[in-house]
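Duplicate of earlier report; Chitobiase/beta-hexosaminidase C-terminal domain-containing protein input re-posted below.
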Amino acid sequence: MRCRYCGQRIPEGELYCRHCGKEVRIVPDYNPLDDMLTAQIKGAIDGDEDIYNDSYTTRSTRNRNNRNAGRTPGAAGNTSSRNRNTSHNGGRQMSEEERRRRNRERARQKARRKKKKKRALLLALFLLLIIAVVGVFAYLTSYIGAVNKGNRALGRNDYTTAEDSFRNALAKDDTRPEAYTGLSKVYQAQDNADKAERLFTSALKKQGENIELYRACIKFYIRSDQKEKIPELLDEADSSISDALPEYIVKTPKFSLDDGEDYDDVQQLKLTAASGCKIYYTKNKKKPTTGSRKYTGPIQIEEGDTTIYAIAVNKAGIPSLPVRKSYTVELPIEDAPAVSPSTGQYSSAQEIEIKVPDGYTAYYTTDKSEPTTSSTKYTGPVEMPEGETIFKAVLVNAKGRVSGITTRNYVLN
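Output:
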């Protein structure tokens, strides 16, 4: 017989090839090793190794009967054949016993490996449990654990526990914004927004480059409806902070008139802002808010001094810094008033008249003194007094500006 794997000759009765070590298949259409392994595994699982022995014995007997079924008994040939079969079966029986012993040993080794794996699995689970416990403890004593505890307490209105938890988190790390935000919410819930603001401003004095802390402070201003403080906060911050928070930077409105010169006529002031922004302004020297007058068209700058405060507000309600500009308009004053009749001697009484332009009021004196707004107000023609009279008149506009003085010398005989 030759090995079906390497082709080398195999002596009669050998079950393994000495050259390649492969097992010899005596019956091509049946492999007893499959049944043996199946029976062994099943026996190891069920705890009954006899199943393997019974299964193998039954299969082995059936195969021998099948091989001998077609043989015809003869004289010398049959005797020789039986001798060979006896020798072959004897060697086979010994090989099968050895195989069964070997398979039983394999089953025991497999059971030991299974038990070892089970112990390893239990050890791994135990280690995982220890790691989980350590992880939970580490989390509970960490910054995030303290912050989450504070947020849960805040959610159930337990402000004392919430404040303690957030302060505990700050003690662990005072550079992160979550604890400041949580603590500010505690103060807001207790109607103490000023304390919440001081919390942020105090921290920012020490951490002037902490962008996330600035962001948290801005969100506090938005949450507490104090958006007008955002531009002031960023205006005082380093330029790197403003560059990092462009969404909160709103450009100031532009004025069409400069405030470095005086105007001699009423002016129309136009304000413009970035796209999507609205403009609010005041004319009473007070800083504007979103509750101030909304810009809808040119603002008329009247005679005199006018101060305009204006802000631009973006779609998110974030305002710009306020811009203040003052204007002075001085209308040309009338020359000295026209007074009739002219200076001279008169033999009969005359009426003295002053020509008063629109927007002006006339004042006069007859005792040689300079007329002012405290002098006699002109309301109509004045009868010329007897004797010599020095008549002086002046015009005053609505802004109190005074014209030149007109003087007349009358003599009535």
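The first strand starts at residue 254 and ends at 255.

Merging into the original ticket.
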